[in-house]
Amino acid sequence: MRRISRITVAGAATASLALALSACGGTSTESSSSDSKGDKGLAIAYDVGGKGDQSFNDAAFAGLEQAKKEFGYETQDVEPTEGETDADKQQRLESLAKQGYNPVVGVGYAYATAVKGAAEKFPDTTFGIVDDSTVESKNVADLVFSEEEASYLAGVAAAKSTKSNVVGFVGGVDIPLIHKFQAGFEQGVKDTNPKAKVLSQYLTQTAEEGGFSSPDKGKTAAEGQIEKKADVVYAAAGLSGQGVIEAAAANKVWAIGVDSDQYNQEALAKYKDAILTSAMKDVAKAVYNLAKSVEDGKPETGIVRGDLKTGEVSLSNSNPKFADNAELQEAIETAKEKIINGEIKVKSS
């Protein structure tokens, strides 16, 4: 389902701008005089961890940067605040819409209630939410991914790389979204090497406890698994995953990154030799595509899914030790083809 609409911008009210700045830890804006339509473009509101997580949020920012460069319009990205409520999130999104941004994207499942509420109040603005399929409003694009498919391939990589027959999974928060990562990974490991054992652990029960934003928690969890002989550890934990990668590097075992190609992340450069691969989902492409659909006058709405078939989930090939391992690459490619053609049904829980 697609709808066609554009908004005309009535300049940002001073109160709205003040609200946006006070409701967040920081914002960044870019503008260009080439915006001949007179309206503002893409705005994103970050999930916990914020910009600089080298993962999920940074991928969304990359999509914003691509849209800004291509369309030459003004953008804004807004940081979360500690302990914020759904009402705070909704107020932030409404402020962005009121200022004339279109589309407005909430990065992360935690924005579901806020996006639904804001979309009802601003029916002529297109909203997006990353990693949630429950909003289903007429002016909302639910940008979701088959994370379990990329995680299955990560499981294949882990099973082919382990020497101890013990591998680890560290999830940030014990929620259905992260269960998809765990389920796919465990299935990929077991299908490839039935003798391998998977140690799985969640850092917290809720995001508010820091499961996605605490590298120290990730490091401690990974160290515990490494003590139990895990020599490949996969983290689906946002910013906390940096601690997992640090622990892997310190103990000379493999880490598998998530969401972005963490081998190439500047903040993780000193650990890159320990990053075997990353199970990626192209949040940047999804965010950019939504912005482009609005720019083209045909906004995406409803569930928009990225998977192995569309190329929006994948494994990174940046580490030469991974890319040049012919046996490993063959196993992954075979599994990928079987998933795409339906021969392998990957579990999501």
UniProtKB/TrEMBL annotation:
<dbReference type="Pfam" id="PF02608">
    <property type="entry name" value="Bmp"/>
</dbReference>
<keyword id="KW-0472">Membrane</keyword>
<feature type="domain" description="ABC transporter substrate-binding protein PnrA-like">
    <location>
        <begin position="47"/>
        <end position="348"/>
    </location>
</feature>
<dbReference type="GO" id="GO:0005886">
    <property type="term" value="C:plasma membrane"/>
</dbReference>
<dbReference type="InterPro" id="IPR028082">
    <property type="entry name" value="Peripla_BP_I"/>
</dbReference>
<dbReference type="InterPro" id="IPR050957">
    <property type="entry name" value="BMP_lipoprotein"/>
</dbReference>
<keyword id="KW-0732">Signal</keyword>
<keyword id="KW-0449">Lipoprotein</keyword>
<dbReference type="InterPro" id="IPR003760">
    <property type="entry name" value="PnrA-like"/>
</dbReference>
<protein>
    <submittedName>
        <fullName>BMP family ABC transporter substrate-binding protein</fullName>
    </submittedName>
</protein>
<keyword id="KW-1003">Cell membrane</keyword>
<feature type="signal peptide">
    <location>
        <begin position="1"/>
        <end position="20"/>
    </location>
</feature>
<comment type="similarity">
    <text>Belongs to the BMP lipoprotein family.</text>
</comment>
